[in-house]
């Protein structure tokens, strides 16, 4: 017998019949348990995955649904249902949320094996090329429960989050560290795990270049942030009263965002990102070569910024052209703007965070805009009035610059592999 109440039975009906709005209302009403089970052991998330509904799956995950539910009578996980339904993007959503890919059902088949069996090859590729939480778990607990060191599940999830996130902007990563400063006591372990995941990616028969580059950028920002924290902790009194790691993260984010009226880009940030790209260890990568060549066209200190190049290379021209990126955290869809200079921000928090720095440079940026120079922090396109700036930029190039010129301005970063 199932323990479903009437509302929960309704929820399953809405999910099965694709009534997304009604299902949404019920989930947010709090009248249903997100992990309730029907008599087959299906949870709402399993049902949403079975129906292939990415929207509902995201909603249920956000409401706290268990992505690794063991309730199903044949041991089917939501990821298996998504794979059988042939929904690669949904598979990705579930794995980003920590779904284990190596789990098997009662007849010992994993999600990827099941997808292969029913011919859902795109799902097989997605599952096999994704940084899964299994991988992170294996590095942290090589002998499972018998491993020498045992880490809390929140820590495993935190490390997995760092390796599977699409947030590669240094300030976004620093903000994430600040919010999770409880884990910073284990900074060496965090670095070690992300490094292992990166190395493993490189050793693949067919390394995924985009994923490798993303992991590398995350790794470098983590490394530099931890170095900064360590130095500040050691300096203690002489460097001021900052002792707490979350506050040091704030200080480092401000350092990254530093800007003077004459600056066209945030110099510390640009130096950091250019340095990271140049230090990428997988030299034969085509992506690396393309990025270095593109970036060499712009002198250090000029626009487009390193981040603009990175977004184009990793996420594609289309995403780049259709979005504005937050001037603070680099997040896409930044629809708020500084009223004076039109610099884009994703949220009020980001705008507030930047204000102490921005108020000194706002007038100078506004003036440069007036003179028709490029707006800071914008994508090559403009959501409201699409412009053809890609071509304009190409027209601006006066000369070809040697590849080595990307290194200009990075001598101060000491990035060692
Ligand atoms: Zn932001
Ligand atoms: Zn402004």
From TrEMBL:
UniProt subcellular location: Cell projection, Cilium
Single GO MF descriptor: zinc ion binding
The UniProt record lists the keyword Mitochondrion: no
Pfam families per the UniProt record, alphabetical: Ank, Ank_2, zf-MYND
MYND-type domain sequence ranges: 326-362
Key words, A-Z: ANK repeat, Cell projection, Cilium, Metal-binding, Repeat, Zinc, Zinc-finger
ANK repeat placement: 40-72, 74-106
Top-level lineage group: Eukaryota
Segments for region (Disordered): 372-403
Name recorded for this polypeptide: MYND-type domain-containing protein
Species of provenance: Pristionchus entomophagus
Lineage, uppermost ranks: Eukaryota, Metazoa, Ecdysozoa, Nematoda, Chromadorea
């Amino acid at each position: 017998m199932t323990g479903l109440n009437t509302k929960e039975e309704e929820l399953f009906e809405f999910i099965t019949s694709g009534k997304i709005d009604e299902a949404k209302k019920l989930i947010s009403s709090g009248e249903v348990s997100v992990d309730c089970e029907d008599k087959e052991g299906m949870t709402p998330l399993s049902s949403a995955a079975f129906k292939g509904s990415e929207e509902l799956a995201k909603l249920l995950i956000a409401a706290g649904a268990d992505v690794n539910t063991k309730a199903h009578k044949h041991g089917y996980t939501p990821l298996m249902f998504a794979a059988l339904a042939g929904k690669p993007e949904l598979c990705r959503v579930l794995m980003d949320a920590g779904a284990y890919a190596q789990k098997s059902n009662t007849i010992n088949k994993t999600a990827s094996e099941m997808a292969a069996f029913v011919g859902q090859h795109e799902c097989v590729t997605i599952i096999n090329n994704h940084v899964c939480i299994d991988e992170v778990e294996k590095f942290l607990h090589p002998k499972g429960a018998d491993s020498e060191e045992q880490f809390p599940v929140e820590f495993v999830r935190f490390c997995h989050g760092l390796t599977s996130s699409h947030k590669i902007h240094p300030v976004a990563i620093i903000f994430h560290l600040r919010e999770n400063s409880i884990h910073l006591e284990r900074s060496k372990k965090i670095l070690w795990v992300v490094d292992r995941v990166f190395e493993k990616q490189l050793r693949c028969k067919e390394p995924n270049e985009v994923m490798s580059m993303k992991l590398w950028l995350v790794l470098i920002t983590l490394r530099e942030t931890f170095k900064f924290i360590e130095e500040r902790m050691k300096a203690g009194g002489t460097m001021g009263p900052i002792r707490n790691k979350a506050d040091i993260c704030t200080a480092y984010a401000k350092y990254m965002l530093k800007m003077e009226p004459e600056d066209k880009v945030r110099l510390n940030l640009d130096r950091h990102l250019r340095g990271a790209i140049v230090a990428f260890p997988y030299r034969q990568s085509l992506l690396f070569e393309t990025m270095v060549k593109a970036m060499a066209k712009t002198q250090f200190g000029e626009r487009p910024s390193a981040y603009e190049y990175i977004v184009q290379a990793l996420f594609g021209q289309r995403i780049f052209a259709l979005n504005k990126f937050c001037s603070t955290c680099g997040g896409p869809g930044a629809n708020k703007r500084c009223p004076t200079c039109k610099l884009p921000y994703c949220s009020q928090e980001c705008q507030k965070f930047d204000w102490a720095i921005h108020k000194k440079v706002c007038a100078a940026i506004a003036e440069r805009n007036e003179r028709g120079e490029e707006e800071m922090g914008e994508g090559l396109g403009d959501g409201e009035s699409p412009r053809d700036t890609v071509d304009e930029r190409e027209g601006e190039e006066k000369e070809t610059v040697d590849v080595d010129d990307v290194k200009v301005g990075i001598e101060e970063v000491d990035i060692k592999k």
